[in-house]
Design brief:
Largest sheet: 8 strands, antiparallel
Number of domains: 1
Order of helices and strands: HHEEEEHEEEE
Shape: elongated
Radius of gyration: 19 Å
Helix content: 25-40%
Number of helices: 3
Structural class: alpha+beta
CATH architecture: Roll
Number of strands: 8
Strand content: 25-35%
CATH topology: Nuclear Transport Factor 2, Chain: A
C-alpha cells in the first residue's frame, strides 16, 4: 500500500510539474509545440538565459522574456514555427517624433503601457504603444496606422 501511495505521489508531482511548464503564462494550459519552442531557441538563443512565458494569441504562439515585467521581448510564431514578428521594448523617447506628436494630440493625459519597436518577418519596422489598454500602431516613420483593442 505504501508503494502505491508513493508511486501515486510521484506521478502526481510529475504531472503537476509538466502542467506548470506548459502553463508558463499562468493564465491557461498552453501546449506549445516543440517546433515553435525550437524555432525560438534557434532565432533567439539568448532567450534561454531568461524565463520564457508563453501565450496563445489569435491562434499563434507568443514567447515573452526579459525586462522588469518579463516582456522586454515578445516574439510571435505560427503553430508550425514560422516567425511572424518581434516586439522589443523601447523607452518612450525612442519613438519617432511624428508618433510622439500624434500621441500628445490625440491621447492627452493618457497613461502609457508598453512601448515597442516591431520587426516583422520581412524586416519591416513599425512601433506599438499601449495606451488605455489599446495598442496604437505607427509605421516606420511614426505615422499613425491603427488602434487595436
Amino acid at each position: 500500500m505504501k508503494k502505491i501511495l508513493g508511486i501515486t505521489a510521484i506521478l502526481f508531482a510529475l504531472s503537476s510539474s509538466a502542467f506548470a511548464q506548459e502553463n508558463e503564462s499562468g493564465n491557461e494550459h498552453i501546449n506549445v509545440p516543440t517546433v515553435v519552442k525550437n524555432a525560438n531557441m534557434k532565432k533567439y538563443p539568448e532567450s534561454k538565459m531568461h524565463h520564457i512565458t508563453w501565450e496563445k494569441e489569435k491562434g499563434n504562439y507568443e514567447a515573452n522574456w526579459g525586462g522588469k515585467d518579463g516582456e522586454a521581448n515578445s516574439v510571435t510564431y505560427t503553430p508550425s514555427g514560422n516567425f511572424i514578428e518581434i516586439v522589443k521594448e523601447i523607452p518612450v523617447n525612442q519613438l519617432p517624433k511624428t508618433a510622439s506628436s500624434y500621441i500628445k494630440e490625440h491621447y492627452k493625459n493618457a497613461k502609457f503601457g508598453d512601448v515597442g519597436k516591431v520587426s516583422d518577418a520581412n524586416g519591416k519596422t513599425s512601433y506599438e504603444v499601449e495606451i488605455n489598454r489599446k495598442d496604437i500602431i505607427f509605421d516606420e516613420n511614426g505615422n499613425f496606422v491603427k488602434e487595436e483593442k
